[in-house]
Amino acid sequence: MIEHSKGIDLHELYKFVSDKLNLSPSQHGEKTFRQILGGCSAIISGLGCLRNDLGDAHGQGKAHYRPLCRHAELAVNLSGAMCSFLLETYEARKKDGIL
Length: 99
Hints:
Helix content: 55-70%
Number of domains: 1
Number of helices: 3
Largest sheet: none
């Protein structure tokens, strides 16, 4: 179990969850699955950076880039797809008695 902490970032949390759900690229021998799962990890990392670096949650630096609506739509759709995938994988693993 991972202990909740304000210091944990989104990518660290995703790495923990993907490892538990057998979704870590290192857990697969097939190149295609490693590539796709590595891309999922990169998406999560990018979404965390988008939130932290370009979102309204933190103070803005000297140069501020304001994402456009299409960037927000992409982020929302990627987030939704990743959440659905993680939840469906969790339910499948639970049903199969793996979790």
